[in-house]
């Protein structure tokens, strides 16, 4: 049994990973967070971190005998990139951690984009360490397109297809292959990967492989064959 620490485990993909990992008898989970919630969920163990202090984070990881750190931080700009880079440095400096999962959830961003550059800084730091590390590419999150009753910790946004307002704008022809995965299915992949003897630096997981055009048709059928208006391809 090893201790797995989830950074950013109170929301988003982190929340799904915590929920999925919690009942697993082979691992103990703790949640790393800037601020401990006033009303924590169930028996979860929360530990507060100062992402600007590498030494204090390293001590926290050692004090809790953390073996694997999973980052579910929202890395999208220089400030959030710095926080995750510091977490990598702390994980490498601590004595007990051996593995690290970088926050590259969702689709892979090009290096010329701000998000791609932010995530890339983490990989640069990881390659300086002796840690075994990986990141997951799962495509688009299906949570964005599910009904309001679907269990999810994700913030609801509309990518390409806005089912609520029945509008769509798709880049390209709409026939390019796309992958979609529900966050709780991504979490199952992650939990299963914890037991792998060796990690690749990039692991793929997806629940559905399709195209935007096919997905649009399925969306229209799901809402009682209502036509999604203002449908247009953008180039």
UniProtKB/TrEMBL annotation:
Pfam families: NAD_binding_10 (PF13460). Residues 8-137 form the NAD(P)-binding domain. Keywords: NADP, Oxidoreductase. One of its GO terms (molecular function) is oxidoreductase activity. The keyword Oxidoreductase applies. Belongs to the NmrA-type oxidoreductase family. Isoflavone reductase subfamily. This is Oxidoreductase BOA1. It comes from Fusarium oxysporum f. sp. cubense. The gene is BOA1-8.
């Amino acid at each position: 049994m090893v201790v797995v620490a989830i950074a950013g485990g109170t929301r988003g993909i982190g929340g799904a990973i915590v929920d999925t990992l919690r009942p697993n008898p082979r691992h103990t989970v703790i949640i790393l967070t800037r601020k401990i919630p006033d009303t924590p969920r169930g028996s979860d163990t929360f530990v507060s971190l100062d992402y600007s202090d590498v030494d204090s984070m390293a001590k926290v990881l050692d004090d809790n005998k953390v073996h694997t750190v999973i980052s579910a931080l929202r890395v999208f700009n220089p400030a959030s990139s710095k926080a995750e880079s510091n977490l990598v440095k702390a994980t490498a400096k601590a004595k007990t951690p051996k593995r690290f999962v970088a926050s590259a959830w969702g689709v892979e961003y090009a290096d010329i984009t701000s998000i791609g550059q932010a995530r890339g800084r983490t990989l640069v730091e990881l390659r300086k360490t002796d840690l075994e590390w990986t990141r997951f590419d799962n495509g688009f999150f299906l949570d964005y397109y599910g009904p309001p009753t679907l269990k999810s910790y994700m913030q609801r946004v509309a990518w390409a297809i806005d089912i609520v307002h029945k509008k769509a704008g798709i880049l390209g022809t709409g026939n390019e292959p796309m992958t979609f995965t529900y966050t709780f299915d991504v979490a199952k992949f992650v939990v299963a990967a914890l037991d792998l003897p060796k990690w690749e630096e990039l692991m793929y997981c997806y629940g559905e492989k399709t195209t935007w055009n096919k997905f649009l048709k399925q969306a229209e059928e799901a809402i009682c064959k209502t036509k999604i208006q203002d449908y247009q391809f953008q180039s």
